[in-house]
Amino acid sequence: MSPRQTCYRFVMGEFDLHPQLVADTHEIGSIGLNKLLLMDDKRFPWVIMVPQRANLRELHEMSPMDQAMMTFEMTQVAEALQRKTGCHKVNVAALGNEVPQLHMHVIARYEHDAAWPNPVWGNGRRVPYVNGDAGHFIEDFTQNL
Question: For 61-111, how does the pLDDT look when each residue is reduced to its tens digit (9 = 90+)?
């Protein structure tokens, strides 16, 4: 294969969420390419985007069309999250060290939040949503989307 040729890893099959994503989130719904999830930590308004494609681990494994759609939808999610929360900064990241399934984190950050200015990972104990708070967040968020 020449350096200019690229091999995309699009595997036909069932799209399933990684069990850790299921355990750590509340489902928001789907937009185009991505399933949207709310991270169950009310300290940080945090949406996780998962491309609904089987067996993806890396952004570069996506087709150019899916990469463009991911960027477009990520911008929509970031704008909606900022409108909903009034945050100072929106962090976007794709790590995948613990959950190998390709997913993007879109996190609203405030200069006064528990982790500022550091990353949210490994900072304190998670504070789960309770008493329907996740549902209220999701409803407000989707109205801004």
Answer: 999 999 999 999 999 999 999 999 999 999 999 999 999 999 999 999 999
pTM score of the predicted model: 0.90
Amino acid identity at 131: N
Contact 53, 70 (CB under 8 A): no
Cα–Cα nearest to 60, from 8, 96, 133, 131: 8
- Which candidate, 78, 76, 73, 72, places its Cα nearest to that of 91? 78
- Which residue has tokens 């799209």? 15
Cα 71–52–5 angle (5° rounding)?
Answer: 65
CB 140 within 8 A of CB 80: no
pLDDT reported for residue 14: 80
Give tens-digit pLDDT for 30-69: 999 999 999 999 999 999 999 999 999 999 999 999 999 9
Under a CB-based contact definition with an 8 Å cutoff, are residues 54 and 62 in contact?
no
Return the DSSP state at 8.
-
- Taking a C-beta distance cutoff of 8 angstroms, is the pair 33, 70 a contact? yes
